């Protein structure tokens, strides 16, 4: 494909669990500057807490988290997931690392999330992944569609942007039985190319 960005594929990446020694990566990925660069699609009130408590909660087993890396480049994204109040139901988020845009690749978020979902659903106690995606973030909605999430509803005026504006959020969900796996996602991506 001459003249177009190549697509990132899950098979190119490595995933590793977070450890307490990764605090510097968390601070870089969730820095105020990074969140400002993300504009209205970032919700800093949650990320301030993440910077301070994320790794400790993962170390305690309360949350699950991984860094997805591209060999020769480094960390592409942080993936973190937490129980959401009902047995077997989890919610999560994915945040790309600074500098990812310099790769000139498309589909980085999809490739990273596919590996994280393989790791998450490897835990037999995880039955469902549920989330909310701001309607002003069409790239994240498209990524959820590619992963096989079902759009389950709309939460009106659900999220506050950094500017204080309230926006609707699409409620999405993915059952363990619906997750086809990172390899299947990669095959779909290759078929689309």
TrEMBL record:
Query: Which SUPFAM superfamilies does the protein's record reference?
Result: Acyl-CoA N-acyltransferases (Nat)
User: Which PROSITE patterns does the record associate with it?
Assistant: GNAT
Q: Does the keyword Transferase apply?
A: yes
Q: Which UniProt keywords apply?
A: Transferase
Q: Which GO terms describe its molecular function?
A: protein N-terminal-serine acetyltransferase activity; protein-N-terminal-alanine acetyltransferase activity
GO cellular component annotations of the record? cytoplasm
Provide the protein name: GNAT family N-acetyltransferase
Native organism:
Streptomyces alfalfae
């Amino acid at each position: 494909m001459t003249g177009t960005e190549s697509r990132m594929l899950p098979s190119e990446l490595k995933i590793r669990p977070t450890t307490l020694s990764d605090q510097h990566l968390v601070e870089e990925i969730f820095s105020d500057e990074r969140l400002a660069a993300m504009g209205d699609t970032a919700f800093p009130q949650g990320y301030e807490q993440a910077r301070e408590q994320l790794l400790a909660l993962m170390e305690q087993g309360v949350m699950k988290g991984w860094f997805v890396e591209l060999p020769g480049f480094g960390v592409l994204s942080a993936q973190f997931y937490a129980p959401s109040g009902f047995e077997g139901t989890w919610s999560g988020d994915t945040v790309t690392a600074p500098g990812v845009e310099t790769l000139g690749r498309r589909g980085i978020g999809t490739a990273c999330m596919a590996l994280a979902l393989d790791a998450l659903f490897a835990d037999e106690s995880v039955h469902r992944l549920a989330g909310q995606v701001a309607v002003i973030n069409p790239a994240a909605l498209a990524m959820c569609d590619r992963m096989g999430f079902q759009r389950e509803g709309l939460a009106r005026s659900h999220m506050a942007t950094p500017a204080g504006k309230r926006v609707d959020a699409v409620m999405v969900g993915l059952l363990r039985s619906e997750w086809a796996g990172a390899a299947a996602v990669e095959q779909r991506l290759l078929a689309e190319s």
